[in-house]
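WARN no homologs supplied; continuing
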Amino acid sequence: MRPIEPLPLHHSWPLADLREHLSPVLLDPAIARNEAALAERGLGLWHCDLADNRLRWTAGVYDLFGLERASIVPRPLAVSLYAPDSRDPMERLRAYAIRHKRGFTLDVDIHRAGGAGPCAMRLVAAPVLDGRGHVVALRGVKQLLPQGTPPSRRLEPTIFVTL
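OK structure emitted
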């Protein structure tokens, strides 16, 4: 992962653009609502409640990280699996997204649990607002990327990969 500086300005986008950034998943509602179909394509949905940092993942995210499906994954464990040169930009963009109510897209490198080796992943994140406009959670999609995938600001439907 080689982010372009300044991170928030290059990788960040307004919440009004959320559908555009998630469009490949939304194109086929049967896939978007089918956890197994997403996982087969190297995709997973995720949610992080900011009140307690509790993570909720679909099967595809567990598969990407090499963790047992449906296990409880504390956020510090998930963050520790990001490669050091990906972890800091991810955390900076996360803080920016929460502070400025903006989504972000970032290609990162992770080290899969259990010695399964490294892989590249596209992370799409968007804040969830409560009725008063406060950010209460983050949610999004994680997509497995084959080696050599060019950087992008959105999901790419042409690079669905099976795990």
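The beta strands are 12-14, 43-49, 54-57, 102-112, 117-129, 135-145.
OK
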